[in-house]
């Protein structure tokens, strides 16, 4: 059993201890909180009161660097919620202080979400040849950058990236937020940020995000991965399989519990033809995709801590995602190209 303690008590911290309760090989010892409160797990005033195998830092952006350093100074591996520091200077300072420790991972879970994990498996299998462009209109900032870099096969690579971004504002009804239905039918101004990311060597990304696009079901989520022999669009692949032979194949999710399927409602597999791209590692839990992704991240972190698996998402990659995300905002603010070059983790 691999144990962890969560620093923080917000909605994201709650997800970690709740999911861990259903994992047979990962245990949450409790939460470190600044002020005493009623929690479903034991509460500690500081990390000095508990000795877990690793720490999950689920605190606000501005508190993240200090929380990470406290764990590292105590010799504890740490999984830090995104982003690991709020500013470019903060990212550089954090890397100087903790980058060489090898103890810091970032809780970037998007590539572990079942649909993305299946798409990534398809791209890595070579069905569309060599990926050269990724377009993401789904989530924001570092999460979208992670998806772009992941599909391009650029994780672990920190070469120059040139960003060109702009913003527009237009009316949009916003029927849903994290808190649920708004009941507001009136369009309100919503900002859309669009950016191109040039990674060099013919590799590029397109970032497209509208305010509250995570929750607003009036905006589709769109993923496009272009390759040398075809492309993946959302849940469909078009590809060249032989001379004069172009085929289109859907990615199919098998969801149990529908119609006369009397199994519990659950995700089973995602397939491309006869190829299984994703198989739910937590059958019977009936978790949504985000819960599957976070549980996968927890399990991979535990395996890494035990020396039984690779690093789930190293600090350098998490920091680079956010550095590029900051460049998108800077480019949109200044209406000029911004190049990310020579970060300290290069």
UniProtKB/TrEMBL annotation:
This is Oxidoreductase. It comes from the Bacteria. The lineage of its organism: Bacteria, Bacillati, Actinomycetota, Actinomycetes, Micromonosporales. It comes from Paractinoplanes rishiriensis.
